[in-house]
Amino acid sequence: MMGERVILHCDCNSFFASVETVLNPEYRNVPMAVSGNVENRHGIILAKNELAKKYGIITAETVFSAKKKCPNLVLASPHYEKYLEFSRKANEIYARYTDMIEPFGIDESWLDVTASKLFGSGLEIAEKIRQDIKNELGITVSIGVSFNKVFAKLGSDYKKPDAITEISRENFSKIVYPLPVSDLLFVGRKTADALKHLGIRTIGELAAANKDLLVMRFGKAGEILSKYSRGEDDSPVEAQDKNDAKSIGNGYTFKHDLVGRDDCKTGINYLAEEIGTKLRIRGLKCATVQLSIKDEYLRTIQRNAPQNPPTDISSEIAETAFKILCKEWSEDKPIRMITVTATNLLRSDTFAEQINMFGDENDKKRKKNGKREIAVDEIRQKFGTDSIIRAAVIDSDIGIYDKAKFNKK
Q1: ∠ at Cα 56 (54, 58), nearest 5°?
Q2: Biggest distance spanned by C-alpha atoms of the chain
Q3: In a 3-state reduction of DSSP, which class is residue 110?
Q4: DSSP class of 202
């Protein structure tokens, strides 16, 4: 019989604010937050330090609101290239202990250390990682240790900052069941409200609920929620960047549910940018674009469309994905998550594209877009990933900038 899995979830505490404090030690003893456009009172708080948290400042509230709570709040502009650098370094530390690493955004990762007994128990490995992160990066990390991904995530959230929590088969009912149901992975505000109407407020009440009732109310998502609450999650830690990848994808769970086309288009464009870059780096083109949409109740649809001709141009991938969304999804239905995936990959050096002898406008446009995106690749490689950012991304409040780069890495 196979032994119990050992899964860690590592969550770098107040990540953006912590990195800014390493770069600027003067922030260490003052309430500070990383925010969007500080000239615009409606810019939002992206991260805050522990001192700012004591004033009740929360992520995604407006700068105007935060300043009312704490007039002496120090605001720092974001430096995304530094956050990416620290994120890579954190994952390099994790890689000392296992090659089974699944990033979950820029500041979180799951690790499967089941086969890493050489380094000790799950708790011992977690402690080594905690010390490595603190000593080498100057930031702190909270780590959950458990037998599945969902409970490991709950563990990393349970004590913060700079803490380790083990949730085992022996203690999980004592730790997990009293927690509010909104603490469970993928339970957002609307799902929590719907569960509340069923008399379900805690994870323990969800675990005890009739599964058929949950399925009747939420569909397949109800069965998933029931399993998660009872510790029956068996999803694997999916190591990223495999050389034999059959697809290249990018997805994001948004800060708030999206309604309407404009925010959806901004999100799709941003997700497609990284996909195009990866295709070009690997010398690939995609002949199919796949779009997955998850609503506020965790229901998911997945649709494919041919990409003709096959492409490595981000704007073309985004255009195809957006056409799928417009065709398959009602404009007034909220969207929680969008994933864009390039599939049916072809080697660029073995793919012969038919050329229009008359050089029509579409061919000229494609060549121009291709050259522009290669130029952007070169600039970002030299000066950092945030040296060129879409204006729509900067103006958006859907929070895509920090996670989109890492959901599928």
Answers
A1: 115
A2: 72
A3: strand
A4: B
Q: Which domains does the chain have, with CATH numbers?
A: 1-168 (3.30.70.270), 177-229 (1.10.150.20), 248-403 (3.30.1490.100)
Give the C-alpha separation, 162 to 140, whole Å: 5
Contact 113, 239 (CB under 8 A): no
Of 405, 406, 404, 397, the C-alpha closest to 46 is 397
* Whether the model pTM is above 0.70: no
**Which region among 26-30, 149-153, 263-267 has the lowest average model confidence (pLDDT)?**
263-267
CA torsion through residues 225, 228, 233, 238, sign: positive
What phi and psi, each to the nearest 5 degrees, are found at residue 120? 115, -170
Sheet holding 101-103, edge to edge: 101-103, 108-112, 7-12, 141-146, 164-167
Q: Is the peptide bond before 334 cis (omega within 30 degrees of 0)?
A: no
Q: Phi and psi of 246, rounded to 5°? A: -95, -10
What's the mean pLDDT in 94-112? 90
Q: How far is CA 364 from the centre of its chain?
A: 36
d(CA 260, CA 279): 29
Beta bridge partners of 141: 12
At 403, the pLDDT band (50, 70, 90 cuts) reads very low
End-to-end CA distance of the chain: 32
How many Å apart are CA 91 and CA 101, to the nearest integer? 8
Measured in residues, the chain has a length of 409
Active site residue ranges:
108
Residues 218-253: pLDDT tens digits? 888 899 999 999 999 999 998 865 445 678 888 887
What is the tens place of the pLDDT at every residue in 328-380? 888 888 888 899 999 988 876 555 454 443 445 666 677 676 666 766 665 55
Both tokens of residue 128?
């080594």
Alpha helix locations (H) across 40-79?
50-53, 63-69
- Spell out the residues 6+ positions from residue 27 whose beta carbon is closer than 8 angstroms to its own: 17, 20, 21, 49, 74, 76
